[in-house]
Amino acid sequence: MKASIQILISMAFVALAACATQEVKQDKPDTPIKDELSIITDESLQSSGQNPPMTLIKDNQTLNLVRIMDGGACKNEFQGAKGAFLVYADQADIERIKSEKGPQIFADFENKIQTLSTEAFQEAIDATNLAEDPFALGADEAQEKLAKQLFNNFRNSVADAVKVFQQETTLTIDVVPFSPSFMFYQQGCEATHLEQEQEN
Questions:
Q1: Residues in CB range of 93: below 8 A, 6 or more apart
Q2: Which interval of the chain is the signal sequence (predicted)?
Q3: Which one of 43, 64, 146, 167 has the largest count of C-beta atoms within 10 Å of its C-beta?
């Protein structure tokens, strides 16, 4: 009887081993093929592994990517973030303003956009909970949650400033944070180093 039990147990182990070694196939979503590749030279965008979209639809208008800016802000001496911001503008507005006021006006526009973006980013950082998430399953999930929160806070902070800018300049723009470029600081804010480098 012991022999038959041993044979039965051996067969059960063989069956279990066979189940454990079967390959599990996972359905992978089809990845879209990009028709057009754009080369972005900004270092923070390259390190993110993604390129930003070259166009954006806003109020049924197609806006083109015209500028990539870096920014950083500290919430306190320990927490902060830095990353890239994408400036989109209506090409027809750009051409119209160039012919009416000359191309030199765009230097002033650039300064205004930089200022409103910096102020909006500081407001967004202040509104974002940058504390470590004890419920995050890992560093990637924590980064993703922070990026989503900061993205939404920035969009809320910059909306009114963009409207005022458009009314003053007649240039249709949008400023969008590029989430994959975000770098968060939770144990010593280094975002001020970025600002000092830009000043030099």
A1: 170, 171, 172
A2: 1-17
A3: 146
Number of H helices, E strands in the chain: 6, 4
The token pair that represents 188 in the structure block: 């010593």
Label residues 156-174 b or e (16+ Cβ within 10 Å = b): ebbeebbeebeeebebbbb
Record the pTM: 0.69
**Structure token digits, residue 50:** 């993604």
CA–CA distance, 198 with 200 (Å, rounded to integer): 6
Nearest to 70 by CA among 200, 198, 184: 198
pLDDT tens column, 31-70: 333 323 233 333 444 344 578 999 999 989 999 999 999 9
